[in-house]
Amino acid sequence: MIFDPETLIRINSARSGYEKALWYESARMDYRGNSVISEVNTAKHDKRKAKLAPAFAGKNVALLETKVDEWLAALVRAIRAKIAAGESTMDIGVMIQYFQVDLISELLIGKPWGDLEDEKDHFGYLKMSEFQVPAIQAFGFLPAARIIYTSPWFMKLFGPKPTDTGGLGLFMRVLQDEVEKRFKEKIGKPEGSWDILDEWIKNGVPPNECQFDLSLLVPAGSETSVMMIRGTLLLLMSSPVAYWKLKQEIRDGIAAGRISNPITSEETRGLEYTQAVVREGLRLMTPIGFGFSKLVPSSGDTICGKFIPGGTSVYPNYHSLMRCEEVFGSDAESFRPERFLGNSQDVAYMSKVVDLTFGGGRFVCLGKTVANLEMNKIFVELLRNFDFQVATPEKPWKRWAYGTFVIQDFRTRVTEDTTME
Ligand code: HEM
What we know:
This protein is mainly alpha-helical. The protein has helices spanning 5-12, 42-52, 60-84, 92-109, 115-118, 125-140, 143-149, 152-158, 167-185, 196-202, 207-237, 240-255, 265-268, 272-284, 318-321, 325-328, 345-355, 368-385, and strands spanning 19-20, 89-91, 294-295, 301-303, 306-308, 313-314, 386-390, 398-402, 404-408, 411-416. The structure holds protoporphyrin IX containing FE.
């Protein structure tokens, strides 16, 4: 495991010769084939990713932004409805999970699962992933267990299947049905609407790959952003000085007409403190602690002065990287957004290191644009409407780390802030 930023930047660079290690196979979800992330063959991975990526780029970014805005408004409505119903103390962590699952399902196939509106974990997906994610992460690190766990016969017997009546299997079927409908009938999507599946079909992604990659995007897009958002909210609630500075920046921005309703992506760039909170939140609550190992090229490599033989799996340790005192200073363990203020070289370098949490180069996260849109907007949209307070300060939540994280009982007291508009 390494947390040396320069080595990680070098591994991600185009000509490093590093490839995905076999750990990635543990991310396989469907016994019938690989998703883009579990595909370890570099040429196949690159070719496949090239067809998926345009859905997240160019003119599509504006469409992604519209959907993010719609779901942020839905989240605000849902929180407001709970307050009106006398439930001002709520599990904000679960509300954010519902929001994210609805956003991602709407982005993928144009149909949200309706978790937020029904206040229900449809398909039992979230409950199931609390069990499934730790299991996948644990097996992923044990080569023998991984080989068994990811073999098609094992997955067919014990893994999620589209014939299941709940959990991951059922959502795989929902996605599979949609793909089949679109390919067979060449309809299914209302005229004038937009979604990622539609973009992929236009880019020549075959039906089975559409299915496997849609199934991947639900956990890839929900386990991650949700962690950052929940974590940053907790950090803000526990740091009154930062909380009120952020509120003040939002208040001033609204009063000066620099923040529309909802805030635009363009406007978020002008909010220096908000940007600093997002970076600092992503740093301390990095959604992925470790994983995504790369294989040392056959000639071997020298890492931090030590020769590492070819074929060794090298794991980025994001958790330690984000708390590295050489990069972030002696208070690296503290939540201090101020470290990201200004335009110094240090700030630019720290930002570059935080960005490593998305991977880089050919390995970069496909959903980075969506995640950035969300992270830059959500705190403005929440704090312009509400105030948040930890409901159980002695134990604000329960959190378990498995490479990614499981969080429960994030009880928060939420009150309306009607002073901003
Ligand atoms: C703060 C939020 C997020 C973080 C920190 C994050 C981080 C990562 C990381 C570290 C990887 C693997 C990089 C590697 O292989 O070295 C990855 C891959 C991926 N992410 Fe994200 N992610 C986030 C949000 C999202 C979202 C919102 C989506 C979907 C909308 C998404 C979709 C994907 C996909 C599809 C891949 C596989 C890319 C490939 O195989 O090349 N991620 N992400």
